[in-house]
Amino acid sequence: MTLAQRLALAVYGAVTTLAQPLLRRKLRQRGQVEPGYLDAVEERFGRYGAEAASRAWVWVHAVSLGETRAAAPLIAALREQQPGLRLLLTHGTATGRAEGQRLLRPGDRQAWLPWDTPGATQRFLAHFRPTVGVLMETEVWPCLTRACRSAGVPLLLVNARLSEKSLKQAWRLKTLSQATYGGLHAVYAQTEADAQRLRQLKAPVQGVFGNLKFDATPSAAQLATARRWRASPAARPVALLASAREGEAAMWLAQRQPGALWLVVPRHPQRFDEVAALLAGAGLKVSRRSQWPESGPSAADWVADVWLGDSLGEMALYYGLAEVALLGGSFAPLGGQNLIEAAACGCPVVMGPHTFNFLEAAERAQACGAALRVADMGEACQTATTLLNDGARLAVARQGTVTLIDGGRGAVQHTAQAVMAALARP
């Protein structure tokens, strides 16, 4: 490591240490809306109680909901290859932590990844002493990377992606970024384009395996429930606005087409009430998923103007209920959400112009007919309504989802083998 890199890391570590009071304040504020952020707050600062440390942890960090779902098939494959594996699963968001609880087995441990200061990361590693660390997708932190290297913990970045926009941002702090990515043990990218961008930051790219999300299996129980509810005599065709980001529900509201029953699912749970108020304020009759009985939507719910998907962990149910989905995050310059999950549930998508977070997957989906590209929300609403009324085109699009998923599988086994190789190192 060069002198300039050591200096950049030292300055960064000093800044994040001084910023800790701001983090505490942010957690208190966020916890007022999402109480999960108030759980085990001291873990955020590298304090994990008196539990005896183990040298056998296989540590997987999945920052949020999407990364945790992507980690699920990898964790399952690792358990197959190493029976008795002790999983340490860390997160950064409350939704990721809630989803991660589903992946735990007796003997596993779940914790917050600490705020990226020299002291907190060193305490984290000293407490758990993981055998290997696996970071999902984009979660690379300077102090954590340096601490792992100093402690001799091989740190892998898997399912790695780096957009052109993120590369430009990282390049503004080139010295710090190259010190950080260059400190990783190994990187396994989703695409060759991701690999090329990562190499510019000195990342040790050792393979291009594809996207783990193609190997994820949606909840069979939720899909079965969706089929049962769609068989109701009162059922109507449903179009879905999936994982809507800030501003997109308002865009949809201004452009929605009459006739269809729309289901709006905000990306973040803290916006459920905000979106409900927006819809009701527009004079729409809103039916909220959280208020449905166990038997599902009633006849009255089926004649509502719009459904609000205000629950966590039920995207497979929502995709199963819908004939077609608009891809959230793609109508504002936010990079798009995960369209692979929709395809795995057999739901075609209509996507806007902004899909740089999943560029190759979006291009492949469009090529095989699982996704349609449009210029804006108005065209998206029109396209979705047209598909709802054209059974032949809808059937072709559904077949495209099968083609997309079948052609994308395989990353899990390659990635699991790479993690096992790191575990087996001398």
UniProtKB/TrEMBL annotation:
Catalytic activity: lipid IVA (E. coli) + CMP-3-deoxy-beta-D-manno-octulosonate = alpha-Kdo-(2->6)-lipid IVA (E. coli) + CMP + H(+)
Localization per record: Cell membrane
Main location: membrane
Superkingdom: Bacteria
Domain 3-deoxy-D-manno-octulosonic-acid transferase N-terminal: 41-216
Listed pathway(s): Bacterial outer membrane biogenesis; LPS core biosynthesis
Annotated EC: 2.4.99.12
Pfam families reported for this sequence: Glycos_transf_N
Keywords: Cell membrane, Lipopolysaccharide biosynthesis, Membrane, Transferase
Keyword Kinase listed: no
Single GO molecular function: transferase activity
Cited function: Involved in lipopolysaccharide (LPS) biosynthesis. Catalyzes the transfer of 3-deoxy-D-manno-octulosonate (Kdo) residue(s) from CMP-Kdo to lipid IV(A), the tetraacyldisaccharide-1,4'-bisphosphate precursor of lipid A.
Stated family: Belongs to the glycosyltransferase group 1 family.
Protein name in the entry: 3-deoxy-D-manno-octulosonic acid transferase
Native source organism of the sequence: Hydrogenophaga atypica
